[in-house]
Specification:
Number of strands: 11
Radius of gyration: 13 Å
């Protein structure tokens, strides 16, 4: 599975961004997809995930602000990020698990105070 992430950028506190992760196969056929983020010097942390069944998980730090979704036609997973905070600043990676694990390239999200 090849993953292509996009949508990062610079935004002010309280702003919104939408990340996209285009997959080389149907996102509904992938066992588990998700978004991770990483700040230099820290471990990569899970932000949100969605199973093939549709079960969704959010980290406590983003609940109520971020929404993960999938588009069947575009074979794309999204992360809508609202009410962004400076602590959301990180490189965001999309991830897929289908037997093996696959990672997209990171996309930088910077939230200015």
């Amino acid at each position: 599975v090849q993953l292509q992430a996009s949508g990062g950028g610079l935004v002010q506190t309280g702003g919104s961004l939408r990340l996209s992760c285009a997959a080389s196969r149907s996102v509904f056929a992938i066992t588990l997809m998700g978004w991770y983020r990483q700040v230099p010097g820290n471990q990569r942390e899970l932000v949100a995930s969605i199973r093939g069944s549709g079960v969704i998980y959010y980290a406590d730090s983003v609940k109520g602000r971020f929404t993960i979704s999938r588009d069947r036609v575009k074979n794309t997973m999204y992360l809508q990020m609202n009410s962004l905070k400076p602590e959301d600043t990180a490189v965001y990676y999309c991830h897929a698990k289908l037997g093996y694990e696959y990672w997209g390239q990171g996309t930088q999200v910077t939230v200015s105070s």
